[in-house]
Amino acid sequence: MLLQNGLNIERAILDKFPLNPVLSGVSLIGATETALGTILHDDPDELIVGAFTNPNIPESTSVAAAEHFAAIYRASGKVDCEYNANVAFVRWRKLVYNACYNSACAIVQMDTSRMRMAKFLIDDVVRPLMMEIIQIAKAKGIVLPEDIAEKMINADPDSTFFKPSMQQDIEKV
User: Fold this and answer.
1) pLDDT digits over 104-124, tens only?
2) Measured torsion, CA atoms of residues 163, 145, 84, 33, in degrees rounded to the nearest 10
3) Sheet order of strands, 46-51 included
4) In the CATH hierarchy, which fold is given to the domain comprising 87-172?
5) How many CB atoms within 10 Å of residue 70?
6) What is the Rg, in whole angstroms, of the alpha carbon atoms belonging to the chain?
7) b vs e for 84-123, b when ≥16 Cβ sit within 10 Å of the residue's Cβ?
8) In the chain, which segments carry CATH 1.10.1040.10?
9) Dihedrals φ, ψ of 133, to 5°?
């Protein structure tokens, strides 16, 4: 199970374990480190699980492994975990937010709410970055909804003043 963000993260694992199902998990959770070692989880844990394509084994084997993992993970009743056959779509959708807001917020040292208040940062930086990610996804065969950039721009409620993880990390330095 690979939970890290990124593309082609499965290649090294498939090379080492060519006959194993390799699963992809896209984690969606809102968390802020409010003090050293103190984490505020202000959004529920949601994990979307699917299978990377492994040409060496039947697709049904990988799908069964992903469905089984999702069932085990959600068995506690404390988390939302679902199997999604199109986990590549989910990963790219998350990248529209993460690749853009994470880096932009870290560079300008502003949370997502304040960036939206300073409209030019959205118009001149965030939205163009998101459009590039959307075009890259399309080139890879993943067609995202036309309104995905606007949904991701406005994903965080204005009242949260949410700082993406890269901004949180840079503020620790």
Assistant:
1) 999 999 999 999 999 999 999
2) 0
3) 23-28, 46-51, 80-83
4) N-(1-d-carboxylethyl)-l-norvaline Dehydrogenase; domain 2 (1.10.1040)
5) 20
6) 17
7) beebbbbbbbbbbbbbbbbbbbbeeebbbeebbeeeebbe
8) 87-172
9) -60, -40
- Return the CATH number of 11-83, one of 3.10.180.10, 3.10.20.30, 3.30.465.10, 3.40.50.720: 3.40.50.720
How many angstroms separate the CA atoms of 33 and 70, rounded?
27
Q: Which residue type occupies 122?
A: I
For residues 153 and 35, which has the higher predicted lDDT (pLDDT)? 153
Give the predicted TM-score (pTM) of the model. Answer: 0.87
**135 alpha-carbon distance from chain centroid:** 17
The C-alpha atoms of residue 23 and residue 61 are separated, in whole angstroms, by: 11
pLDDT > 90? residue 4:
no
Residue 146's CB: how many other CB atoms inside 10 A? Answer: 8
* Joined tokens for residue 86: 């199109």
Report residue 88: phi and psi, to 5°: -65, -40
Average pLDDT, the chain: 93
